[in-house]
Write a structure and sequence with these properties.
The protein has about 325 residues and is an alpha/beta fold. Helices cover about 35% and strands about 20% of the residues. Strands 3-2-1-4-5-6-11 form a seven-stranded parallel beta sheet, with helices on both faces. The radius of gyration is 20 Å and the shape is globular.
Length: about 325
């Protein structure tokens, strides 16, 4: 299989590149050259947001147009960039896998919402950048406009694992590695729903190779792990003396702590939790989704962090996450 990744040097794109290389696929990455690509890929440089920035996708030394079996796109900005790439590649690629998000569903969405649930309004395939939800939905529309039923829409939920450049699991691992009393947001048995980036990569490659199209929610079944299970795995992975002090959600919220950003991954029970940690993934499971144990995700992420010096990369378009030490200390009465 010949795979073109638009990106391919960070988090999701890198995981897909590594998984495809392990299958002996021919992998080409198209990127701006700001990050080192995985070893073993062919490299094309360009900026899809600049005039003529896609030229490298058509220029060849012998004058023939390059062709690929699958294109993978992780773009999160203006949908028009997906539309431009899709139109350019529609005649020279078999399928277009667009890594979207479950944020495309209208808020609030009920727990157990399947792929045909109500979507955000106002998205357009040719739109400029607006907000994350409408940009991702617009990217879906753009992929479908260019590739029709050859477009695979991967509606990922929370993504964790090695190479994470958003700061969720790395923040928890770093905080717990420092040891001592740790604010653990309750309830301990709060169910979580996420996808290991490597499981996302394997499923997406399988689905594209099988010729699947349309939208799929791609995340683990709700309750694949609990908040307690995740943080206890962090303690075990780091080997620290951290003491998890489970704290009532009402006390946390009353202190002005923001779920999801100040305390990554965590959401108290309610509409937001239902939306992020209660999605229907029966279609993806029926199509072969396999989710590795949370302990493996946590241990492998910690091993990766240690291999790069302990500090995870940070996407420049995302804010740094995590609870201020003085706020944590005040909540714990220290």
């Amino acid at each position: 299989m010949r795979l073109l990744i638009l990106g391919g040097t960070e988090f999701v794109g890198r995981a897909v590149a590594e998984a495809a290389l392990a299958r002996d696929w021919q992998v080409t990455v198209f990127h701006r050259g700001r990050h080192e690509p995985p070893a073993g890929v062919a490299v094309l440089h360009g900026d899809r947001t600049a005039p003529g920035g896609l030229a490298a996708l058509t220029d060849t030394t012998d004058g023939s147009a390059p062709e690929w079996d699958v294109v993978l796109d992780t773009w999160s900005g203006a949908p028009s960039a997906v539309l431009d790439a899709g139109r350019l590649l529609a005649g020279r690629a078999g399928r277009y896998a667009y890594v979207s998000s479950r944020s495309v569903y209208a808020y609030p969405s009920r727990a157990g919402l399947p792929e045909d649930g109500p979507l955000v309004e106002g998205a357009a395939a040719d739109a400029g950048q607006r907000d994350y939800a409408r940009d991702k939905r617009g990217g879906e529309l753009a992929a479908e406009a260019a590739f029709g039923d050859r477009a695979l829409l991967v509606r990922a939920g929370l993504i964790l694992g090695p190479w994470e450049n958003v700061g969720r699991l790395p923040w928890w691992l770093g905080r717990i590695a420092r040891g001592g009393p740790v604010l653990a947001p309750g309830p301990r048995e709060n169910p979580l729903q996420y996808i290991d980036v490597r499981d996302l990569a394997e499923w997406t490659l399988d689905a594209a190779q099988r010729g699947l199209g349309g939208a799929y929610n791609l995340v683990s079944p709700s309750g694949h792990v609990t908040m307690g299970g995740l943080l206890e795995a962090c303690v075990a992975a780091t080997g620290s003396d951290a003491e998890l002090r489970w704290t009532d959600p009402d006390a946390i919220l009353a202190a002005g702590v923001e779920p999801w950003s100040d305390l990554p991954v965590w959401l108290p029970r309610g509409e937001s939790h239902d939306m992020m940690h209660g999605g229907d993934v029966s279609a993806a499971l029926a199509a072969g989704l396999r989710c590795r144990p949370a302990r493996e995700t946590v241990f492998d992420t910690w091993a990766w962090l240690r291999s790069i010096g302990g500090t995870a990369p940070q996407r420049p378009d995302r804010p740094a996450l995590g609870l201020a030490p003085e706020v944590e200390a005040a909540l714990l009465g220290l």
